[in-house]
Amino acid sequence: MQVSDDQLEGCDKSALFQAADDLSTRYFHQYETTVDFPHSCGIGAPKAIRRRPVRVSTSPARYCDLDQVDRKIIVLLQEDGRRPAAEIARIVGISVQTVTNRIGRLVGNAVVDVMAVLNPVSIGLEKDAIICMRVNQGSLRSVAERLAELEFVSYVGYVTGSFNLMIEVYVRDDGDLLRFIADELSQITEIRDTEVWTVLEVRKDSHAWSTLSTTFDGDPDPQLAYSE
User: Fold this and answer.
1) Residue 68 CA to chain centroid, in angstroms?
2) Residues of the chain with pLDDT > 90: what percent?
3) Which of 30, 111, 206, 227 is in Cβ range 3.0-4.6 Å of 106 for a Cys bridge?
């Protein structure tokens, strides 16, 4: 993932780098990636980041009242996460400093995350499976923590209904999935029952939540319309 000079203009760079490290270790994607900062930052060689296989909740402490500028910036970043701050400023009609400040606030308030998402199929993890399980009473959190540490687990969530926990795993093939269930999950004795679904094909996998409307009427707020 490239971070350009335009995107760093006007930023407290040391704070930005710390925020990038914090975000990279908070998010659940655990695949190896690198972040390349421009030479002008004085950072030197790209830094390899190993994402922790645990997704700690980054939900805002409260509902964030986004104004028109915030929403336009988010839409532009959803279209292209590497879009320079100078280009965003030109399109929205504000200064570069305002853009960098707004992005910093959106990240700091956990409204958006800044990251590179790797397609697991590109590194041979072609089997996607959803596993739900029932866990002994009193062991829910400890089991969730153990599951979050397993290498191929990309998601761990507490759920309601007939199951307590749901996980998503990416493995190479059916053989790896069988070994995961038989060798990994079987070691967690607090798990009473499991049910496994394999995903045959993903039709949609999107984090591009619309900021143009808070209703389901399909009519975005005309005040948010903009053109380049």
Assistant:
1) 24
2) 50
3) 111
